[in-house]
Amino acid sequence: MNDINLKLTEQLTDLISMAAVKLPDDLMKRLYEMKENETNPKVSAIYDSMLENQKMAVELGKPNCQDTGIIQCFVKAGSSSPFLASLEKCLREAAYQATKQVPLRPNVVAPFDETNDGTNVGYGVPFVEWDIVPEDDKIELDIYLAGGGCSLAGKSAVLMPSAGYKGVAEFVFDTVCDRAVNACPPMVVGVGIGACITTATKLSKKALLRTIGTRNSKPEIAEFEELLFDGINKLNIGPQGLGGKETAIGVSVEAMARHPASLGVSVSIGCWVHRHAKAIIDKNGNVTVLSHTN
After folding, report:
1. Are 257 and 251 in contact, with CB atoms under 8 Å apart?
2. What residues contact residue 177 under an 8 Å CB cut-off, 6+ apart?
3. Pair 191, 273: CB distance under 8 Å
4. Residue 22, Cβ neighbours under 10 Å: how many?
5. Residue 142 pairs with which residues in a beta bridge?
6. Ordered alpha helix ranges (H), the chain
7. Are 179 and 156 a contacting pair, CB within 8 Å?
8. What's the number of CA atoms in the CB half-sphere (13 Å) around residue 254?
9. How far out from the chain centre does Cα 179 lie?
10. Residue 177: closest CA among 244, 229, 107, 237
11. How far is 221 from 228, CA to CA, in rounded Å?
């Protein structure tokens, strides 16, 4: 690696390490809000434990959950960025270094032979999803530490078009009710509506990483988000599945135009320890963190 890529790798190592230890600002703000909204003393005590867990993680510089996940990276890269060719190599090395630095639990097992070399780097991991932005020289990067319980709770399908958006809503509620308790609620819910399983799943993960509390720019989708958010919060699942006024930290929906003969839908779920970080990489390799302050 040349000096500029070494510098970038060091900063990406710190970004991954931070994501494993410190929750993003929007998530912390919402958790405090949910704690204040809760009227059941026993449920409120669970929020106290969660917030204390996060405080101790930051003070000790240790992961806020023993399952530090599989590293997934979502890249929105300017076509003029000088790091198009080297970014994946830098991310792989950063994952390796962060595993030792934090340390991260070694979660990556090879397909079929199930071997684990303890590095959190393997065939296709870190996973990197690319979007190219013409006539730009910066990179917007989302790092997501996808835990096993969260990934277990996800589900995708292609519905008959006659199911309509009511069918999409039913699919979301069925998934949340059936699987979400495995994802350590309260939860973040990302919903993708697409032309097939592939596109819907990709959109659901992008929805999962949106800033909590924001709404889709299309009014009809924003209204759908509000309806899902209100409905999930009436399920009485609550923190750790023990009941409570709220279950959803946030609900976001991303959608695309589709074929009229199919209706793809996907649900991605994040636990209360929704470990991700957003940053901008400029043309000089400087990393500016957007998701966390201090």
Report:
1. no
2. 235, 237
3. no
4. 20
5. 74, 278
6. 3-21, 25-37, 41-60, 87-101, 148-153, 164-179, 197-208, 219-232
7. no
8. 19
9. 17
10. 237
11. 11
With H, G, I as helix, E, B as strand and everything else as coil, classify residue 155.
strand
User: pLDDT 10s per residue in the chain (294 long)?
Assistant: 799 999 999 999 999 999 999 999 999 999 999 999 999 999 999 999 999 999 999 999 999 999 999 999 999 999 999 999 999 999 999 999 999 999 999 999 999 999 999 999 999 999 999 999 999 999 999 999 999 999 999 999 999 999 999 999 999 999 999 988 889 999 999 999 999 999 999 999 999 999 999 999 999 999 999 999 999 999 999 999 999 999 999 999 999 999 999 999 999 999 999 999 999 999 999 999 999 997
Cα-to-chain-centroid distance, residue 199: 17
Alpha-carbon separation of residue 58 from 33, 145, 271 (angstroms):
20, 17, 18
Q: Is 239 helix (H, G, I), strand (E, B) or coil?
A: helix
Distance between CA 241 and CA 244 in Å, rounded?
Answer: 8
CA max distance for the chain: 57
Query: Mapping DSSP to helix (H, G, I), strand (E, B) and coil, where does residue 243 land?
Result: coil
Are the C-beta atoms of 153 and 177 separated by less than 8 Å?
no
**What is the separation of C-alpha 159 from the centre of its chain, rounded to a whole number of angstroms?**
25
